[in-house]
Amino acid sequence: MLFALYCVDKAGAGQVRMDNRAAHLAHLQAHMAQIRFAGPLTSDDGAAMQGSLLLMDFPDRAAAETFAKGDPYAKAGLFAEVRITAVKQVLPKA
Q1: For the chain, how big is the Rg over CA atoms in Å?
Q2: Which residues, including other chains, have CB under 8 Å from residue 86's CB and lie 6 or more apart?
Q3: Rounded to 5 degrees, what are φ and ψ at 33?
């Protein structure tokens, strides 16, 4: 089942993001088979990272929540908000 994880950084937490980036990317690498899309939310000019957006395949919401809680960014307190929403893919056809 697909889940979107929409994670918004706390204001002024850019250094927390940078300090934990390598561990975050390693966490994503360990779950590559489940990732459909992953990338940072940015300012309109693309200069500043403001959060993360992931579209991932999990067996259920509990698994998505476990993944999100295990993210080094979450453990470091980077996010002001994390929303997890089930998604139905319509296009492109899977």
Answers
A1: 13
A2: 1, 2, 3, 61
A3: -65, -20
The predicted model scores a pTM of: 0.94
Looking at the DSSP assignment, which residues form a beta bridge with residue 39?
Answer: 53
Domain coordinates in residue numbering, the chain: 2-87
When pLDDT is cut at 50, 70 and 90, the band that residue 94 belongs to is confident
Structural domain 2-87, CATH architecture: 2-Layer Sandwich (3.30)
CA distance 54 to 65: 13
Q: Give tens-digit pLDDT for 7-51.
A: 999 999 999 999 999 999 999 999 999 999 999 999 999 999 999
